[in-house]
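Recall from the previous lesson that a structure prediction takes nothing but the amino acid sequence as input. Here we apply that procedure to CENP-V/GFA domain-containing protein from Caballeronia udeis. The sequence below is the only information supplied.
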Amino acid sequence: MTNPWIGRCLCGAVQYEARGASLAQLVCHCRDCQRVSGSAGLPVIVVRAADFSFKGDIRPYTKIGGSGTPTTRNFCPHCGSLLFGTPHHAPEIVTIYAGTLDNPSRFKAEFVQFASERYQLDAHQAEIPQYLGRAP
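The prediction returns the following tokens.
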């Protein structure tokens, strides 16, 4: 059996678990993902909804997504952490936002989507200084 995907919000009020292998691991650069994450793109793990569970109170926010159908993103109402999504066009899946994993090193992007909307927000460029800790 595959190790479960386990994560939580910043304050720990909401925890989740997904058993089974991921269906996909990707980075989405659509404008919605940029806005909701405040970053260049959002690392996402797609899992089966039947294998996903969570504990704690969540606050959902639903908006028409890039697919033209509603997508619900779920946040912790206490600390505001973006935790997981439930796209209405594919009710059989849940999208976990990889930054909330207890072990984010397990995330291995297989592809990037909406690359046409990727802007110069991404600081992963070899030509700029990189610091292992806080910049001096």
